[in-house]
Each structure stands twice: as structure tokens, then as C-alpha cells.
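fyi for ur records
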Amino acid sequence: MADDQGWGETGFHGHPHVKTPVLDEMASRGIRMDRFYSAHVNCSPTRTSILTGRHPIRSGVFGPNWSTRPEEITIAHILQKAGYRTGHFGKWHVGAVKSDSPTNPARMGFDEFLSHDNFFELNPVFSRNGATPERYEGESSEIVVREACRFIQSCAKMQQPFLTLVWFGSPHSPYSALERDLANYAHIENKQLQNRLAEISAVDRAVGTLRKTLQELQVDGDTLVWYCSDNGIGHDPRMSFNGPWREKKGSIYEGGVRVPAIIEWPKGIKKPRTTEVPCVTTDILPTILDLLELNQSLPNRPRDGISLRKMIVDGDDSPRSKPIGFWKYATDGESKNERWMPRELTMGTTPTVSNPSIDFLNFRHPVARSEFLGDAAWNDNRFKLVVRGKGTRRQAELYDLLEDPSESRDLASENPERVARMTEQLIQWQKSVENSLTGADY
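which gave:
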């Protein structure tokens, strides 16, 4: 998973400058998912959604630098019990990675990790399995893939199945890239954009190294590789192509949540294709468990993702069976509540260029709210309901994503019955999320 890479920042989506030959090849050989979404508008929440198959607000991950809760059951927990070796490499950002953190990768089901609390640039600092962080010289995407490949090689040598999460720190700002990658973009005047696109090229090259390792180990046919980004474009979309989508990272409009996504699986995907079925990061956990026939291991808790097995294996592009909910939660008053975990356990140890450490927040939420604040959206295949504003000024908007992908024409006044129906569905989902937020699922 890339960090802040926009939907349009790939060669296969027509970017006029960026070079992504590896991702382009994957898209031509696997399934290109053109309506794939991050579960949230920001990084920490989306990462939680991948781990749990649940909307991140259920465990109190409201935004960047908010922690998930140690009571959550992750895909790594489940596959670990099923005999898989599990590894995490790169950006974690759902809690501190130090050894005594209750939400570090080891506590969340990973046998091995080389991880950072947040994003990182050239010559990054990582903690190996919770130990004191150390500096690693080189290009960060190359480093995390090198470590992931070593892990995979050890699994292959022991003939053990593996789950490997490779979460890059690029192309998150601030940007810094190698000269070899910058050389591809010397014709671009804007230096920031030069470095951003060069970081994406480094990610692409690192993914190529990962694929080559799988091929050399002769496990590529049986290995499903799922690539995506954690939220919409993290750069001014006017300076970098991102398709027709409205707004960017931090927004519940398409530019904030629609991201590039590819699945490559030579033995499982019979025919390369592009799909327009709406899919989301919460689908990853139930899909993997379904493919591995581990559905009996699904936690008995409210879940937001669905299995995409039929779409992947059978080529079934039927409309999605369950709408996708988005919620940019209004956190007013949350910090007045008791902390879920003590501060000494949630402070990070791996610095970024702007922060020596992070205090990962999570507060108790003893009473479910009955008034739902913050921007929200309900994506029901073709139509998308957007609810914004506060109190009596709360406004509903409706967009036809097939006819109007740029969300430029609000159809709410012309479709009151559809708005009413979708609003009620959204409210019922928000009630469920609020109930989970109180800790009722544990």
C-alpha cells in the first residue's frame, strides 16, 4: 500500500508524467479495480480498516495519529492461528510500534516487523520487532521491500504460507527522492512535483523487486498481491493529474477516497480485466478469509466489508451487495473522556521530519451519540449520498457517479424519495458504528 498516492497517479490511469511500468504490467495481467475506495479520508483509519474489515470509527480511529484498540481482531491474528507466518514492513500508524505498546504489530498478530509509527523518507528510522529504532541508509521503499523479501524467503525455505503487509511511506510529503528517479522528471518545473513523482517511481520499482522475488521462489502463482493507496491524492490535484474526481485527501468526495487498486494472482485470476464494481479496503479481510476457506474464523462482530471472491475468481461483476459508508467523524468533546490506554504506552518512538514522536490517541466513548456530526457519505453502487454541515444547517447532496463522476450536479432536490431512503440507511449504519465505538463489541 502506498501512502497518499492518488487514483490518477499511475501510468495505467493516464497520468501525463509519472512512470509506473511495474504497476502498469500488474494492471494488465490481473484485475484493475477502477472504483476502489479507501474506507476513510486519511491514513490511520484506512490502515485499521484493512486489519479488521471494519469501519475504523468502530474502534475509535478518527483520523491520523489515532490508535486502534488492542481488543480488535485482525487478519494477522486469524491467519497466524491458521498456520501462516505474518510480517509487517513499513508504515504502521495504528499505534506505537515500541515493544510495550498494546497496539504494536506483534500484539496485533504479526510474527515479525520492521516498522515506523508514521511516514518516512530517505534514510528512514525503523523499529525491528519493537526494539530501539535504528537508522537504515537508502531509499525507503527499497528498504521495506528488501526486508519483506527476506521474510518471504525464510517462509518459502520453511515451506510456510505467509501474510506480508508492505506499507510504503511514499509518496507522502515532504518529498525526497534519489537522483536516478528524479532524472525521469527533469522536464517538470515544479520541484515538489518532481520529487513526488520520483517517489512513486521508487515505489513502483520496489513492487517490481517484490514480484521478482516471488517469481524466483516459484511462489508467484499461488500468491495474491493486492496493491492500493490509503486515501485520495495527498497533493494539489491541479498540479498532478487525478482523473475527474472532486477534491483530495481529507474529503469524502471521490478525490479523497477513490484510490488506485490492483489484484494480481496468476493461478486465481483466469482472465485479466478491469472492473467497475465498487470495492473498499474493508473488503480485504473477508475476501482473503473466503479465498482461504476460513470464513468460520470471522469474528462475531459488526463488519463492514464483504467478500469479493466471486468478482475475483468467477469474474462476476454484479452490483455490490452492500453499500459503502464513509464517515469523517466530528471528534468534539472526545478528549474529555478517559483514555483507552495510558499515555506512556501510546507514545511513539520513531521520529518523522516534523515530529520527534506521536501520542496515539484513543478515548473511551461510554454513551453512543444520537446526533451524527461530521461529513458522511453512503455509496450505493450508482448513487452517492453526501451529508455535510452541522445542526439545522445539515445538508444532503446526491450524485450519480456513473453519469456525473466529478460530482458536479447535485440531484437531491430532484430525488427526494431516494435521498430519504439512503439517508435512513446511512443513519442505521451510523447507529451501529456508534454502538461499536462504546466498546460494546468487546
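The chain has a mean pLDDT of 97. thats all i got for now
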